[in-house]
Amino acid sequence: VYYIPAHGDDAARAQITLIYNHGNYAGLEHYLPRVRFLHEAGFNILTWDYRGYGKSQPAQHPTTQQFLGDARQVRELAQEYAPDPARVVIYGMSLGAIPSVEMALHQEPCAMLLEVPFTSMSQVARSNAGVDMPGGFLSQGYFENTLKIEDYPGPLFVMHGTEDDAFPLEDVRELYEAAPGPKEFWVVDGASHGMGVGVAETATLAGYIEGIDAFLTAHAPGCLP
Q1: Which stretches of 56-114 are DSSP H helices?
Q2: What's the CA gap between 59 and 82, in Å, rounded?
Q3: What is d(CA 107, CA 95) in angstroms, rounded to the nearest whole number?
Q4: CA–CA distances in Å: residue 126 to residues 74, 139, 169, 182
Q5: Partners of residue 114 on adjacent β-strands
Q6: 166: which DSSP letter?
Q7: b/e map of 31-55 (b: 16 or more CB within 10 Å)?
Q8: Of 45, 109, 142, 172, which cross-links 4 as Cys (Cβ 3.0–4.6 Å)?
């Protein structure tokens, strides 16, 4: 687990702590450009590698219960590190939507941001998306985000691309529609799945931060000082 304090140049964002849950491809090192950019934008960042990823030990992939249990522990850790525990935002990219939803149901954040999010095992199987996931993650029920998100009442910002080849747009829209709270669905034309070709890069990094800021202002004022 890594905690990176905000640099303080942006007073509003310096009060917000982002828990960044990365995707399934490689470990945290692959996602450091995004972590660095979010930090440079002014946020406090709490991020981590899942068991079996990056430098995390043990080397083998976790069981379902270990994965979700670790997510809940990281969510609790954020309350200790955050300069304002009431202003924690959970961010999940791709596979990271699984621990993100689990965290949000364990301790509700002031907002949740999901980028090209994992939807559910049943939808992945139906769409033949070909997502390469560890065998231990294929447990029916625990990862049905489209169903679990019905129990999350807080602000939700979903970011997706029209060219995503992992999770079809219509499946992600179904997840979005299932969320009962204040929400916004941002579809980026031409964006694909992954770093370098995804939502932030296609929309431009500046536009990506503007989109997050606009969402927080409109739907999650509790995140802002």
Answers
A1: 64-81, 97-106
A2: 29
A3: 20
A4: 31, 15, 14, 29
A5: 92, 158
A6: S
A7: beebbeebbebbbbbbbbbbbbbee
A8: 45
Please provide the size of the chain in residues: 225
Distance of alpha carbon 194 from alpha carbon 115, whole angstroms: 10
Q: What angle do CA 145, 220, 45 make, to 5 degrees?
A: 75
Place of tokens 């941002």: 186
- The Cα 189–Cα 206 span in angstroms is 16
Per-residue pLDDT reduced to its tens digit, 99-153:
999 999 999 999 999 999 999 876 766 555 545 555 455 555 688 999 999 999 9
- Residue among 38, 40, 32, 66 at smallest CA distance from 52: 66
Q: Which of 188, 72, 168 is nearest to 128 (CA)?
A: 168
pTM of model > 0.90: yes
